[in-house]
Amino acid sequence: MHKIPHSYVDYFIIFSLPFLFAVLEARIQQLQSDVIVDVQHEKVQFVKASKAGIGDSSGNSPKNVFGERPEVPKAGQTISKGGGQTGKGEGKDASASKSRWMEKLSQEKKTKTKKLKQKLGLEDKPVKSSKGKLMLPGTSHKTISTKAGIKTASTVKKSKSLKNQEHTMAASKHKHTMAAAPVAAANVPIRKAKGKGKASKEPAPELSEARNRAEEMERKAEAKARELAEVEELERKLNQWAVSARPELVQDNSEARVYGDVQRSVRCYLEACVFCGDIDRAHRFLLSHHRMVSRRNLLNIGLYNIMMRVWAKKVKEAGLKPNLGSYCAALECMGRNPDCSPHLINRVLRQMEEDGLPVDELFSHCVFRQDERDMVLRAIHTVQPDFQSSINTILQTCSSPLVKDFYTEVGHKLNHEVDIRQNMFSSTQDHAVRPCCLFQRDLLAVQRLVWHKALVGALREGKIILASSTQKAVRLSLYPYLCLLDEKDYVDIMIQSLSNLPPSGESLHILAKELGNRVHNMFCIRMKGHNQMVDKLSHIYNEYTELLAKDSKEFDVLPRERWWKLEAEHSSGPSLLGDETHWPHMVVVELGTYLVDLMVKHMKVNSDLLNSAYDRKLIPVLYHMYTFRSNKQVGFIKPHPILTQMQQDAMDTTLTFDSYVMPMLCPPVPWTSAKFGAYLLTPTKMMRAVEGANQHEILLEKCQDADLHAVLDSLNQLGNAAWRINQPLLDIIISIFNDKGSEKLDVPPPNSEAPKIPRYNQQDSATFTSAEKAHLKREVVNAKKKCSEMHSLRMDALYKLSIANHMRDEVFWFPHNMDFRGRTYPCPPYFNHLGSDVTRAVLVFAEGKPLGPGGLEWLKIHLVNLTGLKKRSSLAGRLEYANSIMDDILDSADNPLIGKKWWQNADEPWQTLACCMEIANAVRSPDPTHFISHFPVHQDGSCNGLQHYAALGRDVIGATSVNLIPCEVPQDVYSGVAQQVEEFRVRDAEKGLKIAQVLEGFISRKVVKQTVMTVVYGVTRYGGRLQIEKRLKEIDDFPKEYVWDASHYLVHQVFSSLKEMFTGTREIQDWLTESARLISKSGSTVEWVTPLGLPIIQPYHRSRTQMYQSIVWTHLIIQGRPDTVKQKNAFPPNFIHSLDSTHMMLTALYCYSAGLTFVSVHDCFWTHAITVDTMNKVCREQFVALHSQPILQELSNFLLKKYCSGLHIQIKSIKFYLSHTHG
């Protein structure tokens, strides 16, 4: 007998009831039954009983405890002397009674047996003995006829979970009746009976052998009875301090006896299963009782304790120790039990102390829902009445030397109006309503109602099928995910996706992921409401916004610190930072695929809906097709032309958006950790990543909170900038959009302006030559491609303008997060300041500031920058040019569509027009210095990538070309490269090189700009050639037959020019590339830490696409070893991107402390006109501070420590190089 030790496992698992149910609910399955078989050996008959019934082997068992109809053997199949009776009263009356009811129910038994064989998962019924006794589940009734008398025994079937190993239970012995514990079926030879109702005749020696086996079984049963008695005694001792059965359920003595008998029956069954090692059977059995209220009232805590001890032992067997969450669950259970012994609570607290887990950390590290925190405190107060949870209120600061001054002197001033509204779903756009449009809208509305009804019915049927499914336990079912929301919500999500489906169709993977993510986001929001977190969040948020609404008081705390203090002050109740698990990508896709399958199968329309000439029949609205992309077969969902035509003709003016894709109408929640911030309810990741990559999440979890403070505060600074819409400009853009658009002004025209797709009949094509047919095919392909592009651009513009029009009278915010390199992005995807010229033009700061003495001049300089003119002119020269064209500026502001239209020739026409309007309003004001301006002025970097390379390599020539060294006029690296390439061309032309002669007069800044800009970010010669080829094709006069040769020649010259201008750049790139190659070859991914302490890891792995079938075939991307090519090619540009992001964050932080409104578009910084000089000063100071750090040396040390620790590597060349570059 093994003694169960007293340890943390015992009391933890006994009182961690909620944790048990979290495990139990995840494994909900119906009870499965075995096939009933009848076998006979000599005078021994086995009738296999079901698993679901519970009974006591004693005669005092209730006749039918659970209200189930007993199943009995077929009449005539259990005939032996004495019938099937045991003990006394086994005469004629018993036999006659048995034959009557057996004959009456034989047909019903036959039907039920057939159903059990055909359908898995049905609940088994208990087998009733001839005296009405309920038998133990999984046992067989055994009748042994001997000359001495009749003895009965119970045998159990071999457990499937134990792979047919023998199991035995204890039993008790009677004078003529032996109630034996289950004995392995292997102990008794079994042979099918050949006849019905007749016992096979056996020789006397075999009968004697059977008698001997029966006596042997009796001796074993007695031994097991003694063992069971010891087990029960141990259980009794362990349960002395368990919660007793609920007394209110017992009304009188008879009811108490039945209640106790049922509990003993259930307890015996659970103990038997646990003793035999069949844990799954016991688990399912207890759960089946818990799910039904009528049965749940028959249970007591001791029954749950049996299973909790089992799980505790499994935890210990796995080599795991309880953590804070484990002890928290145990204390919560004790707090919910008013009769819990203080001695037990003290044992838990002592065990925590022995494990080195302070009690205070329960309240700082654990996640609480609803009243869980209060229950834990109640348990602790039982033994420590004066205990108070002390949350550390000392704010830690970031250890980076770059932000040391920032955190020592913090001050800010904000003037924001607070409007706490969370949901914004629809926006409209005005159209000229025609009768046909109204008809199509009504028709579409009717069809949506029909589809809605069909999808609701299909979803219900699908859930029923999944609920009754008997798939293996190791395979997770979609059923729980289909029960998280109301059926109407699922259907609304599906129907909403139709309006976003392009006529050319959408990838099944993309569509499924979109649907699955929508379900997940809605579930997360509802989960927070269920956990009672919303009320607490609202209270803290109201106090937090007081900080942002103040306009006359300076605060010495950052938004993150303010939020942290408020949360510490309101520590009671649920935790704001939930522990919800992000759904794996495969779960999201499989759930979305299931919803798409419902749409494909059940959304139908009459074929004659738009054309009565067609025969009426129901046809699918969506089709699942396959296409090839990059030589890979891809699932595709394509709408039927009837649906496309209905949506186009209806010209629906309502667009529906999810709240998390819209700008916020209230300030974002500050980022206080990598898991909490941005939206109020919608879960948002601080760091974006590619699908399936989670290495960055692991790195962020390992970081100390203080190390991320600078990154978090910079994100908060960017997100706290308030915006509003430039209404006059928006109205002009909408008018052009509704009037067939304008490609010149980047306003996409409607589909009606798309080129017609050529149509050729079979007779005409028969006369064409093969070359002509190929030409016609290309025309058709190009026309279809053009139509698809125009549709995409038109819908994109429609989304942007609709959202802007909906927000025209609002103040709104853009919460920010970042990618794995640290580059920041607004969370709303459709409409933000990182968009096109149109969206940037309609955005202005919500907070206005006076222009001051130099603000108007900065507006004029900014205007010239937007035109793309005077790139090589000084600031004074640009200002002089702006003053010389004031007439054109004012005309553009007053008559944008009917005047000279000077603004339309600018590089950024809409931003140019917006700036013209702002200048006109300022110069016409009584005092321009007091004019309140909301207009953002941009300061763009001069090829920031080359700036960082020049600073890292201390390259003077390169630094001069990118304005790192003061010059009389601004330097333009693109023009410098173009000039040097032209010199190379002249030299080659004089040598008689044909292509150099052809390129005369065609080399310009525009031709080489993109290649120069991207070469620092890892563009190859092949990619650069394609870029230059595209630019040459845009030149009408350039001979098209020389495009390939010219692009090949120019890309070679551009790379040579950059190598001469930036001598250290290529060396640094080569070192980074070679380091990444060696790291990835060793099987590791490249990892580094930015100067602000942000850990970065490259998510490039060799992935293989595996087809798997859920509802339809789709793809699953499986990550493998690091992709060496991508790792080495991406390391140089990603490292530079991380430095660029670090510089932007430093600038944001110090602009915040200076009281500036600051936003960025990567290397382009925005602020008010009056604060441009201050921002420029901060920008330069932080760039110098950043590159004053030994960046390459620190990177080298990190890589050596990370990947080369313990190895003797020669690094003299690296030290030599670093000493020269930083010397």
Automatic annotation (TrEMBL):
Top-level lineage group: Eukaryota
Gene3D superfamilies hit by this protein: 1.10.287.280, 5' to 3' exonuclease, C-terminal subdomain, DNA-directed RNA polymerase, N-terminal domain, Tetratricopeptide repeat domain
GO molecular function: DNA-directed RNA polymerase activity; mitochondrial promoter sequence-specific DNA binding
UniProt region (Disordered), positions on chain: 52-117, 192-215
Keyword Repeat attributed: no
Location(s), subcellular: Mitochondrion
EC number(s) from the headed UniProt entry: 2.7.7.6
Pfam families, A to Z: RNA_pol, RPOL_N
One GO cellular component term noted in the UniProt record for this chain: mitochondrial DNA-directed RNA polymerase complex
Assembly behavior: Homodimer. Component of the mitochondrial transcription initiation complex, composed at least of TFB2M, TFAM and POLRMT. In this complex TFAM recruits POLRMT to the promoter whereas TFB2M induces structural changes in POLRMT to enable promoter opening and trapping of the DNA non-template strand. Upon metabolic stress, forms a complex composed of FOXO3, SIRT3 and mitochondrial RNA polymerase POLRMT; the complex is recruited to mtDNA in a SIRT3-dependent manner. Also forms a complex composed of FOXO3, SIRT3, TFAM and POLRMT.
Protein name, per record: DNA-directed RNA polymerase
Source organism of this protein record: Oncorhynchus tshawytscha (Chinook salmon)
Organism ancestry: Eukaryota, Metazoa, Chordata, Craniata, Vertebrata
Gene: POLRMT
